[in-house]
């Protein structure tokens, strides 16, 4: 298992949209989902999570237990707004913290590249594509899909296109040993994408039911990478050269020759 902990990629402006997204997801988790406890949690997942089989009408009336007390019953009326609302819900504390960390680590630089408004539109679009991908792979699934992972995967796809050689410090867990290594972003994020793809293959073959929405991750990542590829030239022209590290000078100091 590996987990990114730091990237050496200074930003130019304050990541306003990224901060607002993080704040909104924390607020939804605490207020709407009751911090993951009791009836508010169950109701949020059932009413605001995206259920593929509900949107396609192929899982009407199915009952999905959430715990010993609560269960979801798939409604005959498709709630298409859940494609958006599901992006702000989470299934647990670790799910929330992991998503927010990835968003904070990679989102600030992508927002810096696209601008605040462009980044907001990009983020939502990646989330919609991610949900559509999961819907296409599992159109009859009665399992609610929640989480910002699809949209954040789009951010990661854009990051690997725009900043492939940025060093990323990664925490690596090898059974009982912990270590950290520094690798290029393209290696770390490329490996992450490959793991999502491999993990989703059994679902594609119908061997397992959708639990983790691996294909939402794949769809969001590809969408983000494609958009970044299309806009990479424009982004580089608008941003200009990268900022200089503090305490360093690009050109050497000038020396005056004797007699000048």
What report would you give on this structure?
This protein has a single domain, classed as Rhomboid-like (Rhomboid-like fold). The protein is 54% helix and 11% strand. The strands form two sheets. Strands 1-4-5 form a three-stranded antiparallel β-sheet. A two-stranded antiparallel sheet has the order 2-3.
List the helices and strands and how they pair.
Layout: E1 2-7, H1 16-32, H2 38-48, H3 52-56, E2 63-65, E3 71-73, H4 82-85, H5 93-114, H6 116-137, H7 149-162, E4 167-174, E5 177-184, H8 185-204, H9 214-239
Antiparallel strand pairs: 1-4, 2-3, 4-5
Helix pairs in contact: 1-5, 5-6, 5-7, 6-7, 6-9, 7-8, 7-9, 8-9
Characteristic terms for this protein:
260 residues; mainly alpha; Rhomboid-like fold; three-stranded antiparallel β-sheet; two-stranded antiparallel ribbon; 9 helices; 54% helix; globular; disordered C terminus
Describe the structure concisely for a colleague:
This protein is mostly helical and 260 residues long.
Structural classification: mainly alpha
The major sheet is characterized as: 3 strands, antiparallel
Q: Round the Cα radius of gyration to an integer and report it.
A: 21 Å
Shape: globular
Q: Treating each run of at least 4 consecutive H or I residues as one helix, how many helices?
A: 9
Q: Which CATH-level-2 architecture?
A: Up-down Bundle
Work out the helicity level: 40-55%
Let me know the CATH homologous superfamily: Rhomboid-like
Give me the count of strands.
5
Average pLDDT taken over every residue: 88
Q: Can you list the strand order of the major beta sheet? A: 1-4-5
What distance separates the N and C termini? Answer: 62 Å
CATH class equals Mainly Alpha
Poorly predicted regions: 243-260
Strand content: 5-15%
């Amino acid at each position: 298992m590996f987990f990114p902990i730091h990237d050496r990629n200074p930003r130019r402006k304050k990541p306003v949209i990224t901060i607002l997204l993080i704040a909104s997801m924390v607020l939804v988790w605490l207020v709407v989902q009751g911090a993951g406890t009791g009836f508010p949690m169950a109701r949020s997942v059932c009413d605001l999570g995206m259920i593929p089989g509900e949107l396609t009408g192929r899982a009407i009336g199915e009952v999905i237990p959430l715990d010993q007390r609560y269960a979801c019953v798939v409604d005959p009326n498709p709630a298409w707004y859940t494609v958006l609302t599901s992006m702000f819900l989470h299934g647990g504390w670790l799910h929330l913290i992991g998503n927010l960390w990835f968003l904070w680590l990679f989102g600030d630089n992508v927002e810096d590249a696209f601008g605040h408004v462009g980044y907001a539109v990009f983020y939502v679009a990646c989330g919609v594509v991610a949900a559509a991908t999961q819907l296409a792979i599992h159109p009859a699934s009665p399992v609610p899909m929640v989480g910002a992972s699809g949209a954040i995967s789009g951010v990661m796809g854009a990051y690997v296109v725009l900043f492939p050689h940025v060093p990323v410090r990664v925490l690596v867990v090898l059974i009982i040993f912990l270590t950290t290594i520094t690798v290029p972003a393209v290696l770390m994020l490329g490996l992450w994408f490959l793991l999502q793809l491999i993990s989703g293959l059994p679902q594609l073959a119908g061997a397992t039911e959708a639990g983790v929405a691996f294909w939402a991750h794949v769809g969001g990542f590809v969408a983000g990478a494609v958009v970044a590829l299309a806009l990479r030239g424009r982004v580089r022209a608008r941003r200009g050269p990268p900022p200089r590290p503090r305490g360093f000078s690009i050109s050497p100091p000038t020396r005056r020759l004797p007699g000048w």
